[in-house]
Amino acid sequence: MERLVVEGGRPLRGSVRVNGAKNSALKLMAAALLADGESVLENTPRILDCLTMTEVLQHLGADVSWDGSTVSVDTRGVTATETPYELVRKMRASIVVLGPLIARFGRARVAMPGGCNIGSRQIDLHLKGFERMGAEFTYEHGYLEAKAPSLTGASITLDFPSVGATENILMAAVAATGTTVIDNAAREPEIQDLAEMLVEMGAHIEGAGTTAIEIQGTDSFRPVRHRVVSDRVEAGTFAIAACATGGEVFLEGASASHLDLVLAKLSDAGGEVAAYDDGVRVGMEERPRAVDFVTLPYPGFPTDLQPQMMALLSIASGTSIATENVFESRFMFVDELNRMGADIRTEGHHAVIRGVERLSAAPVRALDIRAGAAMIIAALAADGRTEIADVHFVDRGYEDLEARLTGLGAEVHREPARWPALA
Ligand code: EPZ
Question: Is residue 281 within 8 Å of 250, Cβ to Cβ?
Answer without folding.
Answer: yes
